[in-house]
Amino acid sequence: MPNRQKRVLFSCAGLVGLSCALMAAVAAGLPFWVRGSVLCRTGAELVNATGPELEKFVGELSFGLFHGRRVKQCGLGGRPARFSFFPELLSAIPVGLHVTIIFFCGVVVLFSSVASGFFFFNAFGRPYETLQGPMGLYLWSAICCESPNTPPRHLETLSLSSRRRAAASVLQTKLDGFI
């Protein structure tokens, strides 16, 4: 079992990883990512609007990952409209952009959850290998990031070469001196 200082360090790192996963999940689900204002130039030029009159011709545009909202103001009051990206804006905005954002938000949630699981396991559990400590966690997180197809239940039986094991134990000893 790790001592109290290591438990606190690993618990803090686990909480940071868990908060990263939660923030990425919440950010992907937020309804409005971008907000902007749009001037209806045709209406403003027609009546030669300046100063406070110009605010009657300023509309709003805001959108998130999947849906958006537009309020068009051309001097006669706001005309709100909602739009959706996938059926309506496929020709204007590339689908690859949205798919990439969704994919990487999922990757961030997955890897942050795995990393926080490793940190909490090392803080409160009984690690399988002698690779406990910060260096072991960095090594396990790197293995998890480099080979996402490897199931996590087989990571504890992963055998390392003797040179890597020796290098990891030397680094672990150095890091244990600082902690």
UniProtKB/TrEMBL annotation:
Q: Which residues form a coiled coil?
A: none
Q: Which Pfam families match?
A: Clarin-2 (PF25807)
Q: Which InterPro entries match?
A: Clarin (IPR026748)
A GO-annotated cellular component:
membrane
Q: What is its main location?
A: membrane
As for family, the record states: Belongs to the clarin family.
Q: What is this protein called?
A: Clarin 1
Report the source organism. Kryptolebias marmoratus (Mangrove killifish)
